[in-house]
Structures are given as structure tokens and as C-alpha cells.
């Protein structure tokens, strides 16, 4: 994740659009992980 965000900062054209897109991708990925991981550890699931 760190390298993905660093690359977005380096490659951004200056308007921040690539950085915003990368942050959005990371947030979406974390949200999915937080939704899936508890289900993996829940014996009732």
C-alpha cells in the first residue's frame, strides 16, 4: 500500500487527481478487508 501511494504522489500531474484516486482505492480495499476478516474468525458464520 505504501509503494502504491508513493507512486501516485510521484506520478500525479499536480492537480491531485491521481492521489485522490489512489486514496480512494486504498480506502475501498481496507473497507473490504474489514468486512471479510471478521467473518473468517466468526465460528457462527
Task: Give an overview of the whole structure.
With 45 residues, this protein is an all-alpha fold. The protein has one domain (2-41). Helix content is 78%, strand content 0%. The chain is built from 2 helices and no strands. It has helices at residues 2-11, 17-41. Helix 1 runs antiparallel to helix 2 (17-41). The chain is elongated and about 50 Å long. The two termini are 29 Å apart.
Please sum up the structure shown.
This protein is mainly alpha-helical and about 45 residues long. The protein is about 80% helix and about 0% strand. The protein has one domain (about 1-40).
Number of domains: 1
Q: Which bin fits the share of residues in helices?
A: over 70%
Extract low-pLDDT stretches: none
Report the biggest beta sheet as strand number plus sense, adding barrel if it closes: none
Q: Beta-sheet strand percentage?
A: under 5%
In total, the number of strands is: 0
Mean pLDDT: 84
**C-alpha geometry:** elongated
What is the structural class?
A: mainly alpha
Supply Rg: 15 Å
Q: Report how far the terminal alpha carbons are from each other.
A: 29 Å
Q: Total helix count?
A: 2
Order of helices and strands: HH
